[in-house]
Specification:
GO terms for molecular function: glyceryl-ether monooxygenase activity; iron ion binding. It contains eleven helices and no strands. The protein is mainly alpha-helical. It is globular, with a radius of gyration of 18 Å. The N and C termini lie far apart (41 Å).
């Protein structure tokens, strides 16, 4: 199993690198915010945070997996695989459960003050592009990963589906944070089902009535279902202030790593 996890981490990293390059290319061709050269200075910080977080989760993966097994043993629950569903239906149900859990986890990282301190690092980026998608504090990646994997283990979601979702959300985190101006008719239709760059940009607004909305990771249906969907007209989104009101991110990677412990 450890070999499988290692191989998965390697492929996930390779896919992330390819999608990031493609996202940057799209930003150059169809930028939403013009005059973005100064943003490149943030890339080093954001990408280094990704390296630290990815490395930490990869190193802890075997122990996280063992913890999930222990939790599963102590919380008896009929697993999905015991329902004797057709494979295609099992995959669909599992995907929906994982994406719903990701939505609820994201909401919790906004609603619980201690968790918000970790997630605030992501929102403290005062500009937004594909690199923002991987700007996460390592502790957020670890805490969120442990909690979600333990719950999915109890539910009996197949590991291969969890891994497949991990690759998909890794791709989508670049897509949703891209500084790309999709034609509004396309964005409007797409966000009926999935989270789009225009929809997610509202989530990064300094206005917390907007920041505390649009929590979906891949599917947008959860925000519509639970009343957390917010929209802005297309011509307002490029001018929206991005970041956390009254909070200035720490300088460099070390400053970002210290952010959760600042008052």
């Amino acid at each position: 199993m450890s070999d499988l996890i290692f191989e998965f981490n390697r492929w996930q990293l390779a896919v992330a690198a390819v999608v990031f390059v493609l996202s940057v290319g799209a930003e150059q061709l169809w930028p939403q915010v013009r005059g973005r050269d100064a943003q490149r200075k943030r890339w080093v910080v954001n990408l280094l945070l990704f390296v630290v977080g990815f490395g930490a989760v990869a190193l802890l993966a075997p122990w996280i997996q063992q913890l999930a097994v222990v939790v599963d043993r102590f919380i008896p629950f009929p697993p999905l695989v015991a329902m004797d569903l057709p494979v295609w239906l099992l995959v669909i149900v599992s995907f929906l459960l994982i994406d719903l859990l990701a939505y609820l986890s994201h909401l919790a990282f906004h609603a619980v003050p201690l968790l918000w301190r970790l997630h605030r690092t992501h929102h403290s980026d005062q500009l937004m592009d594909a690199s923002t998608g991987v700007r996460h504090h390592p502790l957020e990646a670890i805490v969120g990963g442990v909690a979600q994997l333990c719950i999915l283990a109890v539910l009996g979601v197949p590991l291969l589906v969890i891994m497949g979702y991990g690759v998909m959300v890794g791709i989508w985190q670049f897509v949703t944070h891209m500084d790309v101006a999709l034609p509004e008719p396309i964005d409007r239709v797409a966000r009926l089902v999935v989270v789009t760059p225009g929809m997610h940009r509202v989530h990064h607004s300094v206005r917390m009535d907007e920041g505390n909305s649009n929590f979906g990771m891949i599917l947008s249906i959860w925000d519509r279902m639970f009343g957390t969907y917010r929209r802005r007209v297309a011509n307002e989104r490029p001018m929206m202030p991005i970041g956390v009101e009254g909070f200035t991110p720490g300088p460099g990677v070390l400053g970002c790593l210290q952010e959760p412990f600042r008052r």
